[in-house]
Amino acid sequence: MSDGPAGPAPGGERLAGPFLVTVALVLLGSLLTFLALRSADGRHVAGAGFAADARPPAAGAAAGPLAHPLRFVPVQAQKRGACAAASGETVRSPETGDCLTLAADAGFEVERLRTAEARLDADGGWLVSIAFLPEDAVGFGELTARTAVRNPPGNQLAVVLDGRLLTSPAVTGRIDGGAVDIRGAFSRAEAHDLAEQLRG
């Protein structure tokens, strides 16, 4: 029997490496989750995107006319800070505070929507669903087809009501059928607020 200090258990040094890697991955995952949650504290969520709504548009009468036309306009450029007096249409993003220059001549506007509602998706996250009238669904599909192939920030559509930018989701592909979701890390209040503003 030895009176000296006990040495490491057989294989103990080999366990330290994988253990440290596991701890590092857990800490990295926690940090990324924290940063993702911190990025979602704006009024509306940066990085939101349009997606086709798999549900068919709701049947029934369309909502009444909007107080002001709702415009969907491709973003031409994005720069940090306030908008300076410049040629062309510019709006300030409530999501990032950046100035967006819009391709106003390439936009699309509607006088009324069939519906605009906040709802939960299958994963329990909030989104905003929009249903267009049939006569507007085709124009929106064509606009999304042109916008989706552009490089960022040109792949974003600014949603503008009475000169105010409501949100500027990215478009990843053509959206046909007249039903679209605006997805992002919305809180319940943010989704309901955006849906209410979309209804004019």
What can be said about this structure in brief?
With about 200 residues, the chain is an alpha+beta fold. The chain has three helices and ten strands, in the order H-E-E-E-E-E-E-E-H-E-E-E-H.
Structure notes:
Helix content is 27%, strand content 27%. The chain is α+β, with helices and mostly antiparallel strands and 200 residues long. Strands 2, 3, 4, 5, 8 and 9 form a six-stranded antiparallel β-sheet that branches. Strands 1-10-7-6 form a four-stranded antiparallel β-sheet, with helices on one face. A hairpin with a 2-residue loop joins strand 8 (157-161) and strand 9. The longest helix has 28 residues, at 12-39. The radius of gyration is 24 Å and the shape is globular. Mean pLDDT is 78; it is low at 26-46.
